[in-house]
Amino acid sequence: MRVSRLILSGAAIGTIIGTGRADLNATHVFNPAWPPHARFHNATGWGTVAGSQLLALWLLWRPGQKATDDDAAVATAALLSAIAWLPFFPALAVTGADVEDEPGHLPRVAGVPLNLIPAALIPSSCALAFLLHRRGR
């Protein structure tokens, strides 16, 4: 079993669970202060992310895959997980956008809001996993 597949599987499963915990609660999808259309978009956004991660898992572990398809499957799985998180950073450039609402409820790690940690680590781990895969690991 390749360690690269395990890393990418962890990224996909962690993305499903982490974004589900962050979005499917009273601060987001079920927040009565949010306009209905904003809650709708947050729910569909989470569904899109969860679906893409399920696709990544299927690509990594589908039965009967051929060695010739392996590189494309692993690359696509890595990109699907990375793409779920990378938009956090350009979104910060949107006027009035922030990673949390006031008064600020997110824990911080070295002064960085907690949700930016996986936004940096998961794409990085996906890149590492892809490089490991290319080296046969």
Automatic annotation (TrEMBL):
Q: Which UniProt keywords apply?
A: Membrane, Transmembrane, Transmembrane helix
Lineage runs: Bacteria, Bacillati, Actinomycetota, Actinomycetes, Streptosporangiales
Q: InterPro entries given for it?
A: DUF6640 (IPR046580)
**Protein name (record):** Acetyltransferase
The species is Trebonia kvetii
Q: Where are the transmembrane segments?
A: 38-60, 72-92, 112-132
A Pfam family name for this chain?
Answer: DUF6640
